Amino acid sequence: PQLQPVDYSVVAFGSHAYSDFCKFGYEVNNALLHQDWAKPFLEIHSINDRSPDEFLKWASIWAQESTIELNALSDLLKTKPIKTQVFEIIEKKIANQEDPSFIIKLRSNQNKKIRSGDLLAIFPANDHRERQYSIGKIGNDVQLMVKFHEHGLGSEFLYKLEIGDSLKAAVINNTHFHFPSKAKNVIMISNGTGIAPFLGMIDKYAKSTAIHLYCGFRDKNSFNLYKNLLDDEVQLLKSLNIAYSREGKKQYVKDLLFRDTEFVYDTLKSGEFIMICGSLNMQKDVLDWLEEVCQNKEGKSISFYQSSGQILMDCY
């Protein structure tokens, strides 16, 4: 609560690709509307897909109403040209009608350094809108695993590409999700297409590092898309643990981790690493469980291990 009245304006950022477009912004605006001290300066304004034009529209109205000039704002918002390189589609595999996920493999003639865990940014509409996908580097090729969304800007664009087609894309150096160089033991946790960077890391590092993979899929049909790829890697893994949420025991990744609680905790306690890639819901479930384990074992928060760089995450 404020002692003096406060004028406010809410600008909400989101994407129409999601049904709850700008939901958080609207919740904030509604909460402020119920405060006696808060006075709406402007109506709530929403920005779709980081649109510079939509943001400038709000900024212009705000400047007029406040009589405060926003000098050179349009210049600041100009996007700098992004260095891209040409990738050719050399392989493509589609799961099935029930699970429209697909694997697409790309090759570039440029010798730019790429590591598994980096991100590939594509620009499907040739404008400011970019879509990022986690890279699994197999040999010298880039392998992406994509979940198809009908009318999805990025996934639909990639889905329509055929072998021999090419696209321009930028490689983003995602240093916080590179394989830890000094690791002796690594637990990898993923669900769905989040397994993509791990397959590249297993391919490169599993001969020298003990890697334990915990992965979750809807059912065996969903897993079949990745099965052949994993068959080549299984002999390199220290352990492979698969959960099916819609089949058999109907387990989630967290259930497998719970079964191996002592091993997971000992891995952290000994200074080794846990890597998580996949959905934000899965990430939240795993972190909540890890928090409970750490509190019960030593009265210490999981944030201790996060701050020491032992938990690496790339979720979406």
Mind explaining what this structure looks like?
Helix 7 runs parallel beside helix 9 (280-298). The chain has helices at residues 23-33, 52-66, 73-76, 153-160, 196-205, 220-231, 253-259, 261-269, 280-298, 303-307, and strands at 6-8, 11-14, 38-40, 45-48, 85-94, 102-107, 119-122, 131-134, 136-138, 141-146, 166-172, 185-191, 210-217, 239-244, 273-278, 311-315. The two termini are 34 Å apart. The protein is globular. By secondary structure, the chain is an alpha/beta fold. The protein has ten helices and 16 strands. The strands form four sheets. It has a seven-stranded antiparallel sheet. A five-stranded parallel sheet has the order 14-13-12-15-16, with helices on both faces. It has a two-stranded parallel sheet with strand order 1-3.
Structural features:
316 residues, alpha/beta, 7-stranded antiparallel β-sheet, 5-stranded parallel β-sheet, 10 helices, 16 strands, 32% helix
Order of helices and strands: EEHEEHHEEEEEEHEEHEHEHHEHHE
> Taking all residues together, what is the mean pLDDT?
90
Largest sheet: 7 strands, antiparallel
Strand order of the largest sheet: 8-7-11-5-6-10-9
Shape: globular
Distance between the first and last residues' Cα: 34 Å
Helical segment tally? 10
Content-based structural category: alpha/beta
Say how many strands there are. 16
Estimated share of beta-strand residues = 25-35%
Radius of gyration, in angstroms, nearest whole number: 23 Å
Low-confidence runs: none
The proportion of residues forming helix, as a percent range, comes to 25-40%
